[in-house]
Amino acid sequence: MLTKRLSFVALCAAVPLLWQGFLCLPLKAQEQSELSKLAIQLRDKDVAVRRAAIEAIGRLGDIAGVDLLVEALEDPEQSVRSDAALTLGQMHFIKAVEPLVKLLQSRHSRDRKSAAVALGMIGGNRAREALVAALRLPSAEDRESVVSALGNLGDAQALEPLVKMLADPHHFVRASAAVALGRLNDTRAVEPLIAALNDPESAVRAGAALSLGELEDKRAIEPLEKLLAKESNENVRQQAEYALQRLRALPQSKP
Questions:
Q1: How many CB atoms lie within 10 A of CB 79?
Q2: DSSP characters for 189-236?
Q3: Which residues fall within 8 angstroms of residue 115, CB to CB, at 6 or more apart?
Q4: Cβ contact 194:182 at 8 Å
Q5: Could you tell me which residues come within 8 angstroms of residue 106 by beta carbon, excluding any fewer than 6 positions away?
Q6: How many C-alpha atoms does 218 have within 13 Å on its Cβ side?
Q7: What does each of the 255 residues of the chain score in pLDDT, given as a tens digit?
Q8: Three-state DSSP state, 92
Q9: Secondary structure, 3-state, 35-46
Q10: Helix 2-41 with 47-60: angle, nearest 10 deg
Q11: I need a surface site. Which of 4, 85, 111, 206 has the fewest CB within 10 A?
């Protein structure tokens, strides 16, 4: 009788564990089932359905969904390819890098931009190398996208390529390079950015002033003061004043 009672107690104690396992196992199965449904939806004739499927895969965040998104990079509809690329970037799985590098060579400009943004989200050596190589693309719009993506990497090895882009013939590429250099948090960018304060385009000067404030290096104080003394563009002046506020608030360095 005692043995039976002990067995009953043991069974009662095990029930919560069994129930927990029952809940956990189907959860993975549900995810797999959901991905199977989404795979079908990715082949739907309706573009809106395919785009919704991509969004749902992104919400699941399962590495098993990467292959489905990579397939969607070949979709005939531009918006679907773009959604797939950006979702891959948001998921941050390294296995998505090579397909995105391939997309970066697409003949469609929006494909190239989406691929650059996504690679900037994922990061890593291969992503950086592909983005640096893409700085030679003939389109200024492409180069601007790539420059911004390199800034998002926060990778110190992107510094020299970005410094070179301060000499790009298109001012909006130079402006993006100035802003991107501030995101790297590398004070080696200070001197090139100080030089960029003399750029003939106000957008470049504003970007350089912004980044000098973010880098928090007091070498920039005097050049920024000189800029303010002669600058007439209101946006540049605002960025320079804000940068100077940050720099002047820094603690005094020890002798």
A1: 15
A2: GHHHHHHHTT-SSHHHHHHHHHHHHHHT-GGGHHHHHHHHHH---HHH
A3: 85, 100, 101, 103, 104, 106
A4: no
A5: 112, 115
A6: 6
A7: 444 444 544 444 444 444 344 344 444 555 568 999 999 999 999 999 999 999 999 999 999 999 999 999 999 999 999 999 999 999 999 999 999 999 999 999 999 999 999 999 999 999 999 999 999 999 999 999 999 999 999 999 999 999 999 999 999 999 999 999 999 999 999 999 999 999 999 999 999 999 999 999 999 999 999 999 999 999 999 999 999 999 999 997 633
A8: coil
A9: HHHHHHHCCCCC
A10: 140
A11: 4
One-letter amino acid at 52 equals: A
Residue 21: CB atoms within 10 Å: 10
Taking the C-alpha atoms of residue 21 and residue 9, their distance in angstroms, rounded to an integer, is 19
> Is residue 104 within 8 Å of 116, Cβ to Cβ?
yes
Amino acid identity at 55:
E
Tokens of 18: 């069994």
Enter the tokens of residue 38. Answer: 């989404």
Select from 86, 94, 92, 99 the least CA-distant residue to 55: 86
**Cα–Cα distance between 9 and 49 in angstroms, integer?**
52
CA atoms in the 13 A half-sphere facing the CB of 46: 6
Output the six-digit token pair for 15. Answer: 């029930």
Cα angle for residues 2, 11, 24 (degrees, 5° grid): 170
Q: Using CB atoms within 10 A of its CB, is residue 47 exposed (0-12), middle (13-18) or buried (19+)?
A: middle
Burial group, residue 64, by CB count within 10 angstroms (0-12, 13-18, 19+): exposed
